[in-house]
Structures are given as structure tokens and as C-alpha cells.
């Protein structure tokens, strides 16, 4: 059962994050405008709230899961370096001395 959950990709690249944010804000804005207009015409504030909540639910459904459209530009990581190289660089550094005030 756990292998099914481990096979689901959880990463989203930076361009995908930007796209998800734009989609989220656009849906929220459109649903708020539609909800306000419909609530104003029907003189029912409750309908405004319902429409905005429906827009929020739709935007969460479209932007929170890492859909494939948000993973089109994967990051290219640098190769792993040996740890001995980093220790040598740290050892070559002179310790900083603080001046007495």
C-alpha cells in the first residue's frame, strides 16, 4: 500500500510553481468578481461566499497536486563532490580573530 504513495511524484519545478500561483490567483479573482456580481444582483451575500468558496476549491484541486504540467522543466543538479575536498578547503582557512573593543 505504501509503495503506491511512494510512486506518486511530489516535486514541482520553479516555472510550475509560478504557473500554479498564476492559475490560483486567476481563479480566485474571477470567482470573486462573479460571486460579487451575482450576489449583488440577487441581493444575497451568501451566494457571493458560496461562489468564492467554490472557486477556492477548484483552484486548490488544480494547483495543489503536482500535475505533469507543473513538472516540465526539471532542475539540473550539480554532481556530488567528495567530502575530502570540502574538509581541505575548510582547513586551509585561517580563523578570524575578533578585535577587542
Automatic annotation (TrEMBL):
Q: Which residues cross the membrane?
A: 21-41, 47-67
- Give the family, as the similarity comment puts it: Belongs to the SPCS1 family.
**Any idea what this protein is called?**
Signal peptidase complex subunit 1
The protein's topology relative to the membrane is: Multi-pass membrane protein
Example GO CC term: the record gives: signal peptidase complex
> Does the keyword section mention Endoplasmic reticulum?
yes
Family annotation (InterPro entries): Spc1/SPCS1
What's this chain's function? Component of the signal peptidase complex (SPC) which catalyzes the cleavage of N-terminal signal sequences from nascent proteins as they are translocated into the lumen of the endoplasmic reticulum. Dispensable for SPC enzymatic activity.
Amino acid at each position: 500500500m505504501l509503495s503506491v504513495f511512494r510512486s506518486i511524484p511530489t516535486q514541482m519545478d520553479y516555472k510550475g510553481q509560478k504557473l500554479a500561483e498564476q492559475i490560483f490567483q486567476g481563479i480566485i479573482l474571477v470567482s470573486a468578481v462573479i460571486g460579487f456580481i451575482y450576489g449583488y444582483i440577487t441581493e444575497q451575500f451568501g451566494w457571493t461566499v458560496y461562489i468564492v468558496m467554490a472557486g477556492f476549491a477548484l483552484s486548490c484541486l488544480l494547483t495543489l497536486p503536482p500535475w505533469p504540467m507543473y513538472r516540465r522543466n526539471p532542475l539540473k543538479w550539480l554532481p556530488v563532490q567528495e567530502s575530502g575536498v570540502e574538509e581541505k578547503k575548510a582547513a586551509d582557512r585561517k580563523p578570524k580573530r575578533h578585535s577587542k573593543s
